[in-house]
Design a protein that fits this description.
This protein has 122 residues and is mostly helical.
Length: 122
């Protein structure tokens, strides 16, 4: 996120917690620690922190909660991707799960998927 987004996140924290006074050095320091996060994840992390905590938010709290958001997003992505693969293969999740223990079957499905998703089908 940009430094202005870090400042906005801290301004939100200050509105929620009167103990926080946002200064330029504070924005700079926080930005060094959380600047690589997505601004929406950081904002949500501050909100979630104050939904569950009474202590002042710290950069590690924002990082931890943002990591949980990223993990959930990745899990959603992987689930959606898995569902798309099942759709291409024309099978249900139950069918996949009942055969997934067999490496040969899984490999055959991988090959079949690749054949179905190439332009010429071969």
């Amino acid at each position: 996120m940009l430094k202005k987004h870090t400042a906005t996140m801290l301004a939100l924290a200050a509105r929620l917690d009167s103990r926080i006074i946002v200064t330029e050095p504070m924005v700079d320091a926080w930005h060094e620690v959380v600047g690589d996060l997505h601004r929406d994840d950081a904002r949500s992390a501050v909100i979630e922190h104050y939904r569950h905590e009474t202590r002042q938010v710290m950069p590690a709290d924002v990082r931890d909660r943002a990591a949980l958001a990223e993990e959930a997003r990745m899990a959603d992505y992987e689930r959606d991707r898995f569902e798309r693969v099942l759709g291409v293969l024309g099978m249900t999740r139950d069918e996949w799960m009942s055969n997934a223990h067999d490496p040969g079957w899984v490999e055959a499905q991988r090959v079949r998927y690749e054949q179905l998703t190439t332009e010429d089908g071969s």
